[in-house]
Amino acid sequence: MNIKTGIAVSAFCLLTSCEDLAIHFTPTKKPIASHSKLAEKAEHFFWDTLHQGKYDNISTSTKLLLAAYLENPNDPLLAAHLGFLHIWKITERQRIANPPPEIVDDIILAKKYFADAVELQTNDARFLGFYGDSEMVEGSIFHDKRQQTKAYFTLKNAIHQWPQFNYFTAGYVMTTLPKQSEHFQTALDWQWSTLDLCAQTKINHNNPDFSPYLNLETQVGPQRACWNSWIAPYNFEGFFLNMGDMLVKQGDWKTAITLYKNATLMKNYSTWPYRKLLENRIAHAKENVENFQHSSASPDKSMMINSGYGCVACHQNK
Ligand code: HEC
């Protein structure tokens, strides 16, 4: 704060809260992209780790990204990718035998780094969506109802900015809620809304066959979040795996099978590393109505988000 602003602030302090004004007049962080060798190496290692689904490399990847972020704590991508590593760690914790209590630190850290990413890159609604998810999960772990309400509105805002991406992202963390809860139902409505947006028409809820819309595939603009890409090579398959799981959990296992089968329509389906997970679900949809009400050690009997592959089912490319 310079002297002039300082005087102005002091004058206003008489009228309103000094603290609010001082904070208001202090500049926010500004984005600066990194070009160092370290940042390049950290980014490269990050994408390899995610695309190869190497959960065991998360801590090495975190070390590298954190070193690069400390070198330049104004890079939005480094911040976001740190957030993604931490949320990946906690989401796929079923891969660790007996995850320790400190696994919750990963959601606290995810929230911190997504907050930085949102501040540095306000126009990327993907980071806002994941910030909202972290806020929601942290609020739920620590029984903070007010934080969960705040998170819900963060997510609504993220959906407003990029619905094709964030209806899924926001609803995904709510798939573990009891099926009769209001928020589980909302999360399911949000998946239907994704389908309507992606198909650019109202999808029939009794027969949600997606084959008529495959020609709408694109790699650009907001609609790209409906399809596969270099970033998320099996997004289409993963989306239908989760949505099928939600319908099974709700009890409508017959419609769920149509949803699961949509995944098989995609041209790269046969190379999807997680196709066995899907095929097992098609074979056991009816029994899973009961299985999906609880958590289970078996990936075949757990909702996708609790399967141990809740991120890599969309992101692993081999
Ligand atoms: C249903 C599939 C799906 C699931 C599940 C999923 N993602 Fe994604 N993810 C996507 C899509 C789609 C994008 C957006 C791609 C784009 O921007 O073109 C994306 C974007 C990303 C990005 C890119 C950020 C950048 O800098 O461009 C990262 C990293 C990421 N997700 C990590 C994760 C992690 C970690 C999880 C688990 C907590 C997860 N994703 C769960 C589909 C998924």
Characterization of this structure:
- This protein is 59% helix and 0% strand.
- Helix 1 packs antiparallel against helix 2 (18-25) and helix 11 runs antiparallel to helix 12.
- With 318 residues, it is an all-alpha fold.
- The chain has 3 domains: 1-30, no CATH class; 33-161, Alpha Horseshoe (Serine Threonine Protein Phosphatase 5, Tetratricopeptide repeat); 170-318, no CATH class.
- The chain has helices spanning 3-13, 18-25, 37-51, 58-71, 76-91, 105-120, 125-141, 145-161, 163-172, 182-199, 235-250, 253-263, 275-283, 285-291, 312-315.
- The site of heme C has 23 residues, from helix 5, helix 9, helix 11 and helix 15.
* Spatial separation of the terminal alpha carbons: 52 Å
**Shape estimate:** globular
Overall number of domains: 3
Count of β-strands: 0
Residue fraction in strands:
under 5%
Helix and strand succession? HHHHHHHHHHHHHHH
